[in-house]
Write a sequence for this structure.
C-alpha cells in the first residue's frame, strides 16, 4: 500500500520525481480516511505556491480536505480527468495524481521516505 | 457511550465515529454504496442512541396537546405515529420527535439523542398543573431502522404480524420479530419505505443478526443515513432546525395544528422572517453547512445542509434565507471565497417512496 519509489508528507500526500516535474497525489491512507471522493478543486496551471500552501481541495461526501504544496513551485499541469471522475482517486490513488509541480532544484529533504511514512502511519495507530 | 450493538459494528468492519457522545459507525463499505443499497434493497441502521421519553398519567394526552405542536389525540386509538415539534415559549424549535400512543394514557416520545436531556427538562418544566409523569427511559430501548423498497419482504418472514396492514406512519405494539417483543412503525429517515423497530436492548443483537442473515440486507452507517435524509429533504436538528427558527420558517407548518387550542410557543410564532429553500449547484464543489448564500449578489442566508446526492448524481443544498419571492436563477453559494452558481429547485430533491 506504500510504494517504495515515492516520497511522502505527513499530510498524506505522495510525491513522485519525474522528468516532467514533481507529481503529487494523495496516499491510500488519505483516500480511505476521506471515503467517497466527489470533487477535486484543481489549482490553476501557472500559479505559484510556497511549500505548505493549500493548493487544491479534495472533497468527499463527509468532508473537505486541503492538499498542501510539498515544496515551493509553480503548477505545471493538473489532472483534468478528475473534474469528471473524482472517484478515480478512490479507485487508484497512486496512478491518479492531482497536479504536477515545476520545481527545479526542489528541496526534497523535508519529505518522508516510504519507510519513514510507514513508521509515521504506525505512530498514528494504523 | 456505546449502543448494545457496538461489538457487532466493529466485527462488520464499521468505522466508528463520535456522534454527540455516542460511538457509532459512520460507514461500513462506503457511504455512496450504502446509500444506493438502501434505495434499491434494504439497509439496517442502529439508531439505539435515539432518546425515549415516556409520558403517562390521567392527563398525559392533555399535557402533550399543550406541549407539542401536532394533534396527538388519535395516536393511541388509530395506532398513528405522529411527527411533532416541541417548541419553547418563543415559538422556536427545541426538538422534533415522534409520538406513539402506546396506551390509553401513555405515550412514547422518540427524540434526538443529543436533545434527550434538554427535552426531558423542558417537558418537566411545563408539566405543572397536569396530572402526568414524565420519565427518561432511553436506556430501556434499542432501535433498529429497516429501510428500503424490499423492507417488508425482508421483515415479514421474521414477524408474527401482517405488515401489509401497516401503512405509512402507522405502528403496532407487541409484535414478535423472531420471538423478540417489539414495537414496529412504518416510519424512517431515508425517504424510502421501511420500518423502525423498538425493542429491549438485550434483544437487539439477535434481531440485528437475524435481519443480516437475509442477503438483501446490509448494515448502514451514519454517513449514508445523512445523505439519504438530505436527498429526501428531511430536516436534521442542529442544521435545519434549532432554537433560532420557528416551525413555519423550517418548512414544517403542516406539523403545527393551530386549530387544536393553546400549546407551547403558539402565541409567539409571529410572521415568518425566513424560509427554507432548495438549491441545485451548477458545479461539483460542495456547499457545506454555514456557507453564505447570495441572490442577485445580495447575501440572503446560509446553507443548512449541502452535499453530493448519490441517487441524483448532483450537488444540492438546503438553505435558510430571508423570506421573499425568488426566481430560479440568480443564486450563488460562497465556497471558499469563490461564488458557485446554483438554481432554486423544489424540495424534496429525491421523490419519497412511502407506502401510503
Amino acid at each position: 500500500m506504500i510504494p517504495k519509489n515515492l516520497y511522502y508528507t505527513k499530510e498524506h500526500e505522495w510525491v513522485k520525481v519525474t522528468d516532467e516535474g514533481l507529481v503529487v497525489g494523495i496516499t491510500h491512507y488519505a483516500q480511505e480516511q476521506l471515503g467517497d471522493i466527489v470533487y477535486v478543486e484543481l489549482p490553476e496551471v501557472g500559479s505559484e505556491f510556497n511549500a505548505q500552501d493549500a493548493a487544491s481541495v479534495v472533497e468527499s461526501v463527509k468532508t473537505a480536505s486541503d492538499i498542501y504544496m510539498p515544496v515551493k513551485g509553480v503548477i505545471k499541469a493538473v489532472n483534468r480527468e478528475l473534474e469528471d471522475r473524482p472517484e478515480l482517486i478512490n479507485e487508484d490513488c497512486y496512478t491518479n495524481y492531482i497536479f504536477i509541480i515545476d520545481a527545479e532544484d526542489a528541496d526534497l529533504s523535508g519529505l518522508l521516505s516510504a519507510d519513514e511514512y510507514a513508521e509515521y502511519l504506525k505512530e498514528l495507530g494504523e | 457511550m456505546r449502543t448494545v450493538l457496538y461489538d457487532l459494528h466493529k466485527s462488520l468492519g464499521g468505522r466508528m465515529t463520535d456522534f454527540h457522545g455516542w460511538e457509532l459507525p459512520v460507514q461500513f463499505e462506503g457511504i455512496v454504496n450504502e446509500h444506493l443499497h438502501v434505495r434499491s434493497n434494504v439497509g439496517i441502521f442502529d439508531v439505539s442512541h435515539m432518546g425515549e421519553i415516556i409520558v403517562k398519567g390521567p392527563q398525559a394526552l392533555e399535557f402533550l396537546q399543550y406541549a407539542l405542536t401536532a394533534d396527538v389525540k388519535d395516536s393511541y386509538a388509530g395506532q398513528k405515529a405522529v411527527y411533532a415539534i416541541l417548541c419553547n415559549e418563543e415559538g422556536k424549535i427545541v426538538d422534533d420527535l415522534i409520538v406513539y400512543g402506546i396506551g390509553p394514557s401513555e405515550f412514547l416520545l422518540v427524540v434526538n439523542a443529543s436533545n434527550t436531556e434538554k427535552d426531558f427538562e423542558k417537558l418537566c418544566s411545563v408539566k405543572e398543573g397536569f396530572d402526568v409523569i414524565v420519565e427518561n427511559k432511553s436506556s430501556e430501548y434499542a432501535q433498529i431502522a429497516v429501510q428500503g423498497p424490499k423492507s417488508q419482504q425482508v421483515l415479514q418472514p421474521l414477524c408474527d404480524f401482517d405488515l401489509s396492514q401497516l401503512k405509512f406512519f402507522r405502528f403496532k405494539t407487541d409484535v414478535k420479530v423472531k420471538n423478540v417483543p417489539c414495537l414496529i412503525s412504518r416510519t424512517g429517515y431515508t425517504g424510502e419505505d421501511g420500518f423502525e423497530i423498538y425493542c429491549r436492548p438485550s434483544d437487539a443483537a439477535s434481531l440485528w443478526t437475524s435481519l443480516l442473515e437475509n442477503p438483501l440486507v446490509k448494515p448502514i452507517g451514519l454517513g449514508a443515513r445523512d445523505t439519504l435524509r438530505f436527498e429526501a429533504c428531511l430536516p436534521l436538528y442542529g442544521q435545519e432546525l434549532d432554537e433560532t427558527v420557528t416551525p413555519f420558517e423550517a418548512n414544517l407548518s403542516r406539523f403545527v395544528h393551530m386549530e387544536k387550542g393553546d400549546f407551547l410557543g403558539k402565541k409567539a410564532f409571529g410572521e415568518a422572517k425566513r424560509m427554507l429553500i432548495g438549491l441545485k449547484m451548477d458545479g461539483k464543489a460542495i456547499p457545506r453547512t454555514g456557507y453564505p448564500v447570495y441572490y442577485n449578489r445580495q447575501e440572503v442566508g446560509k446553507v443548512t445542509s449541502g452535499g453530493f446526492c448519490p441517487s441524483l448524481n448532483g450537488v444540492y443544498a438546503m438553505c435558510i434565507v430571508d423570506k421573499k419571492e425568488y426566481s430560479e436563477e440568480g443564486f450563488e453559494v460562497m465556497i471558499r471565497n469563490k461564488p458557485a452558481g446554483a438554481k432554486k429547485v423544489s424540495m424534496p430533491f429525491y421523490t419519497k417512496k412511502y407506502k401510503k
